[in-house]
Amino acid sequence: MTEPHPVPYAAPAPGPLDPWPGEVTWRPVSPRLVWLELTRVVINTAVLLAACAVVGVLWSTRWAVIGAVVVVVLDVTRAVVAVRAARSYGYAERERDLLVRHGRMVRHLSIVPYARMQFVDVVAGPLERAFGLATVQLHTAAAASDATVPGLEPAEAARLRDRLAALGEDAGEGL
Amino acid sequence: MTSPAHPPEPATGAATPVPRTPDPAPVPGAPPAGGPLMIARQRLHPLSPVLKSVRTLIIVIAAVSWRGLQNLGTKNYALAVLGLLVLVLLYSAVAWRFTGYEVIGRELRIHEGVLFRRTRAVPLERLQSIEVVQPVLARLAGLAELRLDVAGAAKSEAPLAFLPLAEATALRGRLLALTARTPAAVPASAETAGEPAAEQPDEPDLHRVDDNDVVVSQFLTPPVMFTPLAVLYIVGQLMLNSDFGIFAIASMATAVAGTIGAPVMRILNFWNFRLGRTDDGRLRIRHGLLETRSQLVAPQRIQSLTVTWPLLWRGKGWLRVTLAVAGQNSAVNADGQRSRAETDRLLPVATLETARALVPLAVPGIDIGALPLSPVPARAAWLAPLRHRVLAAGLTDAGFAAVDGLTTRQLTVVPYARIQSVRVVQGPWQRRLDLATVYVDVAGATPAAAVHRTIAEAFGWAGELTERARAARQEV
């Protein structure tokens, strides 16, 4: 990745998730992210179903059953979307910028130059910790910048954080 | 306690800190050109605590009056108000002793507070723009507030209130001189420090917006256009409805005042709008009828520029130009109130010719009349049936430009050096049509978006934009 023009102006047949085929080595996130997302959906389903059960026991209406069916249908859809989204995550460290892609329905690709980095967050919630995963967030001065890489092994997260922090350079613009 | 602005003595020891000088109107001495990066600790104007608490004071007096006049009687009431005033004055005297500001190294420190002492340190490198604001009350007292815009969260604002106007202008010059990386800028601004009435410009205005145009343009906005309808409705209600309470009338009057309030506020704010340029290339924007503002913005600090053609202004061929400067949205008044006045205008109303001449001052090398923009492919009509004729975007010499909006047309220009990150987003319908949207993220503004480009073009642009952004960053 030391070529002066890593991006040709008109890439040959760019795929929707691989804009620069052969030039960028995408790294996947941990496969455990899929299970993490599934666990989130299951917990959510359990809570909502419990609420439906409480309503059903207290008032014994048909609506509780209908609600439960709706919850199950919605959450199965959510699970499918979440699994596909989790599988779609990928990131690539280029010489001067970080690429992050994600999404199946709506496909996102972010290009964030290291020079624009303000700070790096490594976040691990209780559920993420249970799965031994962490999320790295790269923040720029723009609020809309979206460079979040979830589902990283802690060692990989620390490595990425250190590398990003080392690559950040002072742009000298007061930003 | 109304002390006028003293003419500043040119030979105040700038390098030696004088922490407890009982000088009632301290003035920062103008140091010799290229002097040390220090301003000794100075107090704010003695009236500052009074002016800052005047709003609270009015509320308290109103609250006391509500019950007080009935219960206490006129004499006791007068005594109570008098006591309150004395208390406020005493507090102000104490508070004033703790106020102060100083520049140490490359840091401005602002000291405030009596019970909760606060020292706010502002790194001068982080200053985005400095504004001299004169609210109505402060203007009567000949005082001004120095508002420092710092990039970042809403809490990072740093108002320096209040200083005599001359001192505020002089201090701004010196702070900007310290901010500038080139030492050549120091003598240019140091000479303004000697003027006691530094209100008059040291350079001619490049442009003056006609006040009539401001008034007409603000009346050509939807809220004002619909006000006659609202008034007609009220009158009709009064005529036909016999049991119509005073409360309903009052609420309707308030509604009308509310709709017409915003345009009137804008007229007051954009009155006497003047645009100038300092010797070191900064933009000087001054406006305001009651509350006057004078803002200095360096072109390097301009993150993006937006040209807007509102629907109702098309007949006149008018447009407005706004600037996005990081941290400016978070500008907060001295009394903690969010500033309602819009301070982001480069031109509140102008014709295309004027804008073409003046926009290059903010974004060099851009000609908004002849931008090399390309339209979107015809198949975008499936997703934007009417808008696709308007949508256009392109990579110009100076920056990324995108046009959007069917009724209110908007052109956004982001200089390459200001690009923070680039995103390509493709929704499910866009994927069917092989289209994608390119977002260019900037600090402190909504991202510029090139909607519905072909996928090859979108990824090509994304790569090209990062390349050009990097090249532009290294140039600076």
From TrEMBL, chain A:
Pfam families: bPH_2. Residues 87-164 form the YdbS-like PH domain. The chain crosses the membrane at residues 41-59, 65-86. Keywords: Membrane, Transmembrane, Transmembrane helix. It comes from the Bacteria. InterPro entries: YdbS-like_PH. This is Membrane protein. It comes from Catellatospora bangladeshensis.
Automatic annotation (TrEMBL), chain B:
The chain crosses the membrane at residues 78-99, 219-240, 246-268. The keyword Repressor does not apply. Residues 96-173, 279-332, 396-452 form the YdbS-like PH domain. The keyword Lipid biosynthesis does not apply. Keywords: Membrane, Transmembrane, Transmembrane helix. Residues 1-10, 19-32 have a biased composition (Pro residues). InterPro entries: UCP026631 (IPR014529), YdbS-like_PH (IPR005182). Residues 1-32, 187-206 are annotated as: Disordered. It holds the Pfam family bPH_2. It comes from the Bacteria. PANTHER family: UPF0699 TRANSMEMBRANE PROTEIN YDBS, UPF0699 TRANSMEMBRANE PROTEIN YDBT. This is Membrane protein. It comes from Catellatospora bangladeshensis.
